[in-house]
Amino acid sequence: MRRAIMIGLGLTGLLAAGGCGSAEKDAAMPSDVATASVLRAYAEGGTFAAWADDQTAITYDPSGVPIGAGALVTVSPAVVETVVQLDVEGLLPSRAYGAHLHTNVCGAKPDDAGPHYQHHHDPKAAASPPSVDPSFANPSNEVWLDFTTDVAGTASVSSTVAWRFDQAKPPRSLIIHAEHTKTAPGKAGTAGTRLACITLPE
Ligand SMILES: [Cu+2]
Questions:
Q1: Domains of the chain by range and CATH?
Q2: Are 176 and 109 in contact (CB under 8 A)?
């Protein structure tokens, strides 16, 4: 079924050229057998639609992420790093978007996905979310996947971080935002309205 989705999106070729093959190789390395769950690779995505309980790819604002657009998130963990790739199609042409991994699954409301997934948690964000301190809200401690679409509305972007997901509490969604991500103190990590969300596997 997942393969059918990829073909429908026309993203199969991108996947074959991307992290999927190498991820399978990593997951099969004998030294990693004991940590197979930590190194689990996956690709998740689909066609954007309005929110429903069983909907993986949700658009909250079809004027920014149209119904029928598609996205695929490919996670490729390795021994000392994690590569996350985002492929999109059917978005607005030549437009800047922000994108990050967030902590919670997508819900009926954009805020249901919670804050950004962080490797080292910003202690101040617990009392006063979200984390806007650049020493925590940055693309080395979070997974940022900002992109600008081409004239056809497609884009492909990847981020490599020098750590692996916490398997007890992995990121559970990718949010597409209305703007590129800011880096200034007090605004770090903010990227405007949450336009769309993809729920990621546990
Ligand atoms: Cu975000």
A1: 2-27+40-199 (2.60.40.200)
A2: no
